[in-house]
Design goal:
Layout lengths: L5 E7 L6 E6 L2 E4 L12 H5 L2 H10 L5 H4 E3 L4 E3 L7 E4 L3 H11 L16 E3 L5 E3 L4 E2 L2 E5 L2 E4 L3 E2 L2 E7 L12 H4 E8 L2 E2 H7 L13 E3 L4 E2 L32 E6 L2 E4 L10 H9 L10 E3 L14 H4 L7 E2 L5 E2 L7 E7 L5 E10 L2
Parallel strand pairs: 6-20, 8-16, 9-24
Antiparallel strand pairs: 1-2, 1-5, 2-3, 3-4, 6-7, 10-11, 12-15, 13-14, 13-20, 14-16, 14-17, 18-19, 18-23, 21-22, 23-24
């Protein structure tokens, strides 16, 4: 058969065992029963390397879907891979500039180092959850002598990159496709009041570590070749290790909904730092990679309000609450709100969606 875009995930049927699956159209192929690849998570496939990734894709063309596939709406999806480590970057100049203007209105919006290197922080692998998992409103220190549930719970629309092949040292930007298996959606939930109070002088901690949601489907990197676009001009020119011959800038169209209503449509092509630069920076000091390492882009944001990737920017930290079609407004998320982030590449494939509903503390 002629294969269209294929994505990979982990599913179960009617309480049965977890199986590795491939989404082909609106059906989920059981890769184990079809004799393509037996595993209960993506990690063994991701570790096998690019030659096996291509071979698995090619073998799917010969699978009898009537025997080995299930309608997608009948399966239960699980976290697609075991997360070995998690790092999150801050790669949008538009987002970083807006955050600087909000938090430091009397100073320069960007820190001196921002255009010289991809800024990031080390996140919490143990709280990465699959799409559909409810998010409990976190509590933490909110200011001097004050502790309680966050009043400024936010989403962050991001793109995540999943490492397949491990390394024993630095990975060059040009070796990106030799190590990264694929791409998934990420919502890096944020407690902005906790984050603002704790993140001086160090980075986010309690304001971020309570939950990070990822999509149930991982798009293999080779399926996004046609989505590559020219990288943005970077000034000043970055250090040599951050100069790939052909950067992995991607044109991905993202859509963010609150309770079903579209509130933003960021474009990943607006990002300043590219994911291959992020991977090179992550490892340049000798840090190793492990299968299942996840690193995310940071909030994807653009030059206009309709392309801002979080409520901090959309409501300007609550100064200008956004209006929803049902007549309500939002400065930040309320209990019961459902956030859905979806994305597509030009002409496909879809990255699916990542969804989470806020529950009371």
């Amino acid at each position: 058969m002629e294969l269209g875009p294929v994505t990979y995930g982990v599913f179960s049927v009617a309480g049965g065992p977890r199986r590795l699956g491939a989404l082909v159209g609106d059906r989920v192929v059981d890769l184990t029963s079809a004799g393509v690849f037996a595993a209960a998570s993506l990690n063994p496939l991701m570790a096998a390397g690019p030659a096996v990734w291509r071979a698995v894709h090619d073998r799917l063309a010969d699978v009898d879907l009537d025997r080995h596939a299930h309608p997608a709406h009948t399966v239960r999806m699980h976290r697609p891979f075991e997360v070995a480590d998690y790092a999150d970057f801050y790669a949008s100049e538009h987002h970083a500039t807006n955050v600087g203007r909000i938090f430091r209105p009397d100073g320069p919006p960007l820190r001196e180092n921002w255009r010289h290197l991809p800024i990031g922080y080390h996140g919490r692998a143990g709280t990465v959850v699959v799409s559909g998992t409810d998010i409990r409103r976190p509590a933490g220190p909110l200011g001097p002598g004050e502790f309680g549930p966050t009043r400024k719970l936010d989403f962050e629309a991001e793109i995540g990159f999943v490492v397949g092949v491990p390394s024993e040292g630095p990975v060059s930007a040009d070796a990106f496709a030799e190590h990264v298996f694929g791409v998934c959606l990420v919502n890096d939930w944020s407690a902005r009041d906790v984050q603002r109070w704790e993140a001086t002088p160090l980075g986010p901690f309690l304001g971020k570590s309570f939950a990070t949601s990822i999509g149930a489907w991982v798009v293999p990197l080779h399926a996004l070749d046609h989505a590559r676009v020219p990288a943005p001009r970077q000034e000043p020119e970055p250090l040599p290790y951050l100069r790939p011959a052909k950067p992995w800038a991607l044109d991905l169209a993202i859509e963010v909904r609150i309770n079903g209503h579209v509130v933003s449509a960021p474009r990943f092509a607006d990002m300043y730092w590219t994911p291959d630069q992020q991977l090179a920076h992550l490892t340049v000091n000798g840090a190793t990679l492990r299968t299942g390492d996840l690193f995310a882009s940071g909030t994807v944001s653009g030059p206009s309000p309709d392309r801002h990737g979080c409520l901090l920017e959309l409501s300007w930290d609550g100064r200008d609450p956004i209006a929803l079609p049902d007549g309500t407004t939002r400065a930040y998320l309320e209990d019961g709100d459902t956030v859905t982030i979806s994305a597509t590449a030009p002409g496909g494939p879809s990255l699916g969606a990542v969804t989470g509903t806020v529950r009371a503390h």
